[in-house]
Amino acid sequence: MQTDRQLPSIRDDRAPWTPRRTLRGSDYSSLEVFDEEREKIWWGDWVCAGRDEDVAGPGDYMTRDIAGESIFITRNEQGELHAFYNVCSHRGTKFVDDGSGHTRRAFKCPYHAWTYDLDGRLIGTPNVKEDEYFDRSEYPLHQVHVGSYAGFIFVNMSAEPSRTLMEALTQGAETITAFERFKMDELRIGVRIVYEVEANWKIIVENYNECLHCPTVHPELVQVVPLFRFGEVWDEDLRDDGNRMKEGATSFTATGTSTLPPLPDLAPEDQDMYYGTYEFPNLMLNLHPDCAMYYIGYPKGPNHTTVVSEYLFRPETIASPDFAPEPVVEFWDTISKQDWEVCARAQTGVSSRAFTTGVYPRQDRFLYWFNEEYRLAMGRELQG
Q1: Where are the alpha helices (DSSP H) in 113-174?
Q2: How far apart are the first and last CA of the chain?
Q3: Which of 63, 118, 262, 321 is the most buried (most CB within 10 A)?
Q4: 299-353 confidence digits (pLDDT tens)
């Protein structure tokens, strides 16, 4: 990703505004554009790939499909994260089955039984004779850069990352690093829902970053977050661009209440707040007084995205016999399904030959900023 050009600021809500152009229709529907995105965004910079707890101990592993490229992530005997292309160095066989699991000390290729340790070193080659002058050290697994922050795992498939993970997390308009008080690294997954959405990944991000649709599409949501009735996504007078929930609300549910205990060590002003923040390209994080929820988007093509939605709670909350996440989960699931329906409708529209480009009024300024970040990543001219 190029970082030598300056992204526009959207922090001053009082600045004069002239309508900006949206991305082109082909940016949402073209296979050629999607192939370019794979090289420059999904395989060229840091991408969220899940949670630390999915690979909590040595030998634990999980696979991820990143825009058509299969990788797997594991942890070695010293507890260090490693990520590799899911490709055997012998003849390119897909190495690890999809999903997650555990291996004691090594991974064995299911084809010819070449074996690699948890650091990716080749340690077993049963079909190679001792007199072949074969140096195993020259054939390790193909490594992928990996890092973590706040319990989230990020991978970077470029040969040499152009920026560090922390630079990637802090160079956008928003950053999850502003929410360390939520101690997300200590939270654990209590619920997981996977959605298959018939829309381009950018439409899903744009939908997340605007609320002009909220009064029409989310009648339940605007009852809980009053500001959303006016099409705004944040209150710039509040800390971290948060949104105050309705009077008396302490949980992100249809009633504004639940039996979930509040997260410890939050500021007093957090107790009735909803915070939403986005990390380019695929992490959409929602923070509540008693839990967190996020979407991670995995594009499957120009018009389909797998969206993994996971809910984070304190481990002692999950372990409690009174653990009852249903009010939060059911509320978010309703909102999510409403979003996926209109995203699919938007995908149909932008794929029409009649659509070339649209327009952003002021209340769409977050989408304009996202488009500028996208143009920057793709090496295009910024609108400015």
Answers
A1: 165-170
A2: 18
A3: 118
A4: 999 999 999 999 999 999 999 999 999 999 999 999 999 999 999 999 999 999 9
